[in-house]
Design goal:
The chain has about 260 residues and is α+β, with helices and mostly antiparallel strands. It contains 6 helices and 17 strands.
């Protein structure tokens, strides 16, 4: 039974996503790890919170106030990790941004990979961009040692079984050579941990360079390595449309 005028209570993961802490799945991982407390008590996955009255902290720090909804495109260099912080002290993608308030990475690029990475404060957008059911494709430029013949391309397209299940590329094209390496462009429908590298290794290819050049409707273009920019309104609209989002889907309690 609802009371007129009562504030809606939100699932904790959605509240954290709306405040730019992490995607909803990332928020659940924080909760499971015991890093989130509500009103001084350890939080549980699935619990509801009052956005106004409840005190929520992550790693002992209060959750930030509402943040502006914004999404950035970053050209990540090799050696930079795709996390908000790194226990080993390595530089993170947020170190490259002037104002990282509320931003978190959408998925990951490995430290030894480079290219297009999105940073956002929009937890719902991040969730949809990384969930396989929405089919957001990513395109990579990959350099591998030696010659790549038709049989290898067929193996990549046909798929192999990795330790976490079957994997395959959706498209694979040889685009040239560079210092004895073969250059490929491959398109993926998923983004599992080091999936492109593991898929290449399973077909006998040793990756020497991996660059993400497109994410859904977005293309890296001429953005310099280590640089970032805010998405243009048309790009943000295309990204949201690709995931089936409308402005009405912005999480309550999040930035607008």
């Amino acid at each position: 039974m609802s009371v007129a005028g009562a504030r809606p209570r939100l699932r904790l993961n959605r509240y954290l996503a709306g405040r730019g802490v992490a995607s909803r799945r990332g928020a659940d991982r924080l909760i499971e790890a015991g890093r989130v407390a509500v009103n001084g008590r350890r939080a549980e996955v699935g619990m509801l919170v009052d956005p106004v009255r409840d005190g929520v902290v992550v790693d002992g720090r209060p959750v930030p106030a509402e943040v502006e909804r914004r999404t950035l495109m970053l050209n990540k260099p090799v050696g930079v990790v795709s996390t908000r912080r790194d226990p080993g002290g390595r530089p993170t993608v947020l170190d490259l941004v002037d104002d990282a308030t509320g931003l978190f990475p959408v998925g990951r690029l490995d430290a030894d990979s480079r290219g297009l990475l999105l940073l956002t404060t929009d937890g719902e957008l991040a969730l949809r961009l990384t969930h396989p059911r929405h089919g957001i494709r990513k395109r990579y430029r990959v350099a591998v040692r030696g010659f790549v013949g038709p049989a290898v391309l067929r193996a990549l397209l046909g798929g192999v079984r990795l330790d976490d299940g079957p994997a395959r590329v959706l498209e694979a094209t040889v685009t040239g050579e560079r210092r004895g390496d073969t250059l490929l462009e491959v398109e993926m429908g998923e983004g599992r941990r080091r999936e492109v590298r593991r898929l290449c290794a399973a077909t006998g290819l040793a990756v020497t360079d991996l660059e993400r050049i497109a994410f859904g409707p977005l293309h890296l273009g001429r953005l310099a390595e280590g640089s970032w920019r805010r998405l243009r309104p048309s790009e943000e609209a295309a990204l949201r449309a690709a995931t089936g989002l409308t402005d009405g889907d912005a999480p309550p309690g999040g930035g607008g």
